[in-house]
Prior knowledge:
Blueprint: H1 4-45, E1 67-68, H2 73-78, E2 83-84, E3 87-93, H3 99-112, E4 117-121, H4 126-137, H5 143-146, E5 149-153, E6 169-170, H6 177-195, E7 199-203, H7 205-211, H8 214-230, E8 234-240, H9 246-254, E9 258-265, E10 268-275, E11 285-290, E12 293-296
Parallel strand pairs: 3-8, 3-9, 4-5, 4-7, 5-6, 7-8
Antiparallel strand pairs: 1-2, 9-10, 10-11, 11-12
Helix pairs in contact: 1-6, 3-4, 6-8
Amino acid sequence: MDTPEDGETLKTAREIIADLDKQINRAVQERRRLESLLAALNMDRGASLQIPPSPDISLSGTVIPGKISSGIPKLDDLLNGGIDIPSNIVLKGPPFSGKEILARNFIAKSISENIPVLIVSVDKDIGKIKSDVMKILGGSVDPEETGLLKFIDAYSKTVQIQSPSKHAIVSEGVSNYSLFIKTIDAASTDMLENYGNFKFLFFTLTGMISQIDPKFFIKTLQHIAQKRRSENAVSLYLMDLGVFDDNVYESANYVMDGEIEFRVDFSKNYLRVRGMGNVKSRDWIEIMFHGNSFDLGSFDLKRVH
Length: 305
């Protein structure tokens, strides 16, 4: 049986690991900056200045170059190793079709690998989001306390309740879209300065469209997506199907790199991938739920697009 001392030791160890990962991430970012500088100097002077090859460092043990895990192993297989870095991906489907489970596993996987996550919520209780993620993570360490999980709570004030998190950045909501964008950009800058990289989640585009003038929707989303891409982030945006006209969904797709679409067909659930580069199949693939995650049925490799 674990003692309080064991718990404190574990917490301290995790904090040390998180701090080391911050230092590594900052070093990687500095190396990239220097490589860009040397490349520019080489072009100007015709020189052949070089930085020695970088060591093969794998943060948390499972890094595929240019990819990051979705949190669902079989989906990573379908995507040929994970989601490209950077990417803006919309998770689209009816409520409770599986997109929420994918989002939670994406968050949990990141935190387990000491990669910070910035979550913006405009129509979901952030306490519920965190609770669902913690069911996957387990353990007693609070990722908000360690800085690996950061919320921008744009929901609580709109329903006139107190934010359930003392660590959250509380926003007035989407109606003042200029201030909303500045709040997100400031938080992402802080993530980059402290960690060197991060993942980004948006709950949900459905709620955002409901609170903003339609003519400002695409402008706001375009800024958010382009800014996250420039920060080398992998970003997921949740969106319910069957709520708006088709042109609204097409507007969202316009600024995305791809989508994972979910559907419910009687008693079965399916997903398919659109965009997202080279994948093993673009057919509808059955989802089998288990616990807090899901698996995928077989996909036909003869139908690669």
